[in-house]
């Protein structure tokens, strides 16, 4: 077993964690394979000149991470393969000709460039000194709180100005919320098929992530309660409006039920509302039912403008300082010039205009795709930016994605969103924005033909 040869003579303390990391890396890079037996505690302690207790703690840590398992009377075995790095979208620069339905982007048109140019023109005269010369959040961003409150009110949330942290989009908001809500080793629950960046983020933060079974409205409260009864839950990460990747909408009663469970079992909620604004009729956010324990965030990149990396994180009052400190050390301050543009858009009506435009564009695209897929069952949410296509039993996800790709269309495999192999859903996610309508139609027509064809492995020779 090569990893023991690579074990350094001195390792950073605590030794158990360094050993666990080393074994975890060996699993990731394939030096240790699923099913391989690890040395006994005593054997390894002897080989590495460490105490048996240190080896036991390292193995316990790896069991906790779900990477190895002990089998009574047989020993300890690698139980999980390399960490998945299969991002659902196609990396930049690959396949210039591809109809890329793998990436989530809003629809864009010349109107977006026109509105951005107008904002630049206006701001070139009026840009505040604080937006160019200051990087202290209280100085640079205070003037934009009014716009933030107005936008959050459109999202169904009224809150105190001090509970808002402005962020460079949803991603830093999510990191800040998770850092505030849970510590290493604690349990965070989420949808069994979830927003994919949560999976590596939880791994980097050493959080335990567990998926909750879903129905047509997302998280099933009874399933959540079953878990809460059996072990301490620190936080629940949830995307009630347009769930990525399943495209489901949670109704108002369900939102209220989750808020009630959070109170009963004393956990916090992290609510991702990155797409909420594009829904035609949306129930109030969960944060409106449990503001004292919900971290709520939304951003502009998905519902208005891909390049407008700006968002709002609303935090529970008693955790406002803790969250602000965590945001400071990870991102310091949202870029003030972005805050200028977003606030100008909100206050001069451009944000409402572009939101209505986006809703109409996505509404049209959803209708067009439903027509092309006529007779094929698939999941969608109102004005959703993507659909979810369960595959016929005969196709594997891998073969379907590879065949589509070979024919010039990229779609994301469902497995990229699964918390564990057992939650995989045998489906693909198809995004509707980001490309021209005509290319989308071509891509979905090809997907429909492939769906109806007998499965074939992708051709290897071309
Ligand atoms: C569910 C969800 N939330 C948030 C984001 C990222 O948002 P932002 O670009 O504002 O960081 C994504 C990106 O695809 C997403 O799928």
Automatic annotation (TrEMBL):
<dbReference type="Pfam" id="PF00392">
    <property type="entry name" value="GntR"/>
</dbReference>
<protein>
    <submittedName>
        <fullName>Putative HTH-type transcriptional regulator YjiR</fullName>
    </submittedName>
</protein>
<dbReference type="InterPro" id="IPR051446">
    <property type="entry name" value="HTH_trans_reg/aminotransferase"/>
</dbReference>
<dbReference type="InterPro" id="IPR004839">
    <property type="entry name" value="Aminotransferase_I/II_large"/>
</dbReference>
<keyword id="KW-0238">DNA-binding</keyword>
<comment type="similarity">
    <text>In the C-terminal section; belongs to the class-I pyridoxal-phosphate-dependent aminotransferase family.</text>
</comment>
<dbReference type="InterPro" id="IPR015421">
    <property type="entry name" value="PyrdxlP-dep_Trfase_major"/>
</dbReference>
<dbReference type="GO" id="GO:0030170">
    <property type="term" value="F:pyridoxal phosphate binding"/>
</dbReference>
<dbReference type="GO" id="GO:0003677">
    <property type="term" value="F:DNA binding"/>
</dbReference>
<dbReference type="InterPro" id="IPR036390">
    <property type="entry name" value="WH_DNA-bd_sf"/>
</dbReference>
<keyword id="KW-0804">Transcription</keyword>
<dbReference type="GO" id="GO:0003700">
    <property type="term" value="F:DNA-binding transcription factor activity"/>
</dbReference>
<dbReference type="InterPro" id="IPR015422">
    <property type="entry name" value="PyrdxlP-dep_Trfase_small"/>
</dbReference>
<dbReference type="InterPro" id="IPR036388">
    <property type="entry name" value="WH-like_DNA-bd_sf"/>
</dbReference>
<keyword id="KW-0663">Pyridoxal phosphate</keyword>
<dbReference type="Pfam" id="PF00155">
    <property type="entry name" value="Aminotran_1_2"/>
</dbReference>
<keyword id="KW-0805">Transcription regulation</keyword>
<dbReference type="InterPro" id="IPR015424">
    <property type="entry name" value="PyrdxlP-dep_Trfase"/>
</dbReference>
<feature type="domain" description="HTH gntR-type">
    <location>
        <begin position="13"/>
        <end position="81"/>
    </location>
</feature>
<dbReference type="InterPro" id="IPR000524">
    <property type="entry name" value="Tscrpt_reg_HTH_GntR"/>
</dbReference>
């Amino acid at each position: 077993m090569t990893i023991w040869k690579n074990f350094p003579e001195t390792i950073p303390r605590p030794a158990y964690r360094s050993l666990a990391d080393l074994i975890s890396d060996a699993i990731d890079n394939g030096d240790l394979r699923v099913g391989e037996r690890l040395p006994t505690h005593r054997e390894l302690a002897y080989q590495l000149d460490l105490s048996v207790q240190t080896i036991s703690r390292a193995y316990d840590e790896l069991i906790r991470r779900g990477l190895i398992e002990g089998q009574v009377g047989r020993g300890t075995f690698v139980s999980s393969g390399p960490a998945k790095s299969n991002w659902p979208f196609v990396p930049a620069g690959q396949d210039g000709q591809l109809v890329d339905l793998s990436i989530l982007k809003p629809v864009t048109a010349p109107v977006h460039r026109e509105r951005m140019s107008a904002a630049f023109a206006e701001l070139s005269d009026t840009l505040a000194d604080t937006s160019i010369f200051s990087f202290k959040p209280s100085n640079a961003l205070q003037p934009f709180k009014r716009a933030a409150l107005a936008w959050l009110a459109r999202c169904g949330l009224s809150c105190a100005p001090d509970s808002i942290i402005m962020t460079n989009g949803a991603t830093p908001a999510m990191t800040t919320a998770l850092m505030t809500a849970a510590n290493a080793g604690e349990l965070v629950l989420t949808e069994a098929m979830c927003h994919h960046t949560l999976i590596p983020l939880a791994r980097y933060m050493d959080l335990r992530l567990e998926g909750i079974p879903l129905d047509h409205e997302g998280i099933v409260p009874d399933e959540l309660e079953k878990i809460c009864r059996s072990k301490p839950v620190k936080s629940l990460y949830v995307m009630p409006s347009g769930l990525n990747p399943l495209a489901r909408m949670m109704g108002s009663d369900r939102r209220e039920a989750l808020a009630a469970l959070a109170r009963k079992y004393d956990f916090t909620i992290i609510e991702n509302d990155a797409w909420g604004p594009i829904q035609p009729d949306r129930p109030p956010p969960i944060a409106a039912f449990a503001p004292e324990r919900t971290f709520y965030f939304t951003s502009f990149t998905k519902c208005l403008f891909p390049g407008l990396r700006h968002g709002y994180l609303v935090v529970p009052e008693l955790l406002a300082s803790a969250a602000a400190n965590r945001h400071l050390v990870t991102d310091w301050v949202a870029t003030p010039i972005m805050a200028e543009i977003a606030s100008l858009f909100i206050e001069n009506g451009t944000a409402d205009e572009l939101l209505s435009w986006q809703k109409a564009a996505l509404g049209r695209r959803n209708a067009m795709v439903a027509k092309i897929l006529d007779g094929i069952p698939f999941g969608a949410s109102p004005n959703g930016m993507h659909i979810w296509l369960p595959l016929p039993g005969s196709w594997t996800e891998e073969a379907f994605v590879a065949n589509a790709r070979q024919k010039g269309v990229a779609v994301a495999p469902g497995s990229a969103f699964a918390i564990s192999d057992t939650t995989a859903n045998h489906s693909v996610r198809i995004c509707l924005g980001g490309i021209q309508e005509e290319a989308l139609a071509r891509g979905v027509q090809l997907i429909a033909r492939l769906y109806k064809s007998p499965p074939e492995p992708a051709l290897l020779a071309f």
